[in-house]
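--- STAGE predict ---
source: upstream dedup step, 1 unique chain passed
mode: sequence only
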Amino acid sequence: MKTVQDYIRTIPDFPHEGIMFRDVTTLFADPRGFRLAVDLMLHPYAGLEIDKVVGLEARGFILGGAIAHQLSVGFVPVRKQGKLPGATITQAYTLEYGEAVVELHDDAIQPGEKILVVDDLLATGGTAEAGIKLIERLGGEVISCAFVIDLPDLGGRKRLEGMGMDVTALCAFEGD
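--- STAGE serialize ---
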């Protein structure tokens, strides 16, 4: 029986030399692999009160939409700056090689709503932390953060757990 990790392709030296890129598009392209990932990501939250799923740009949209559908709850995207048409709030964060800004519609989350944050990969945790800060600024309560892949050596899980977050991941790749 194949595991989620078996569906993930590794591409060496992308986007630059020394990086082992974990490509989830091969997981998404396989109907069994995609279903397996969504079902396993949902499992820890069965029976919990969740009002909305927030997906982090861009692969978090694919997973988050599928998970929101299965939970029969709304889906909210956290996008790169300048991509949302309505009034937004923004959060800057640090990347390996600079800074980026993500945003959320200012009416996307209501105070007290319980939120599940979803993305494909947890590396340093910068994007997830920025998304969490946006959700919390609108009064949302993040109940958990769910990922397909954790790269534990980059410290993202520790960073999010240090913020008091519950973190789940379906698989981990060491040394990346």
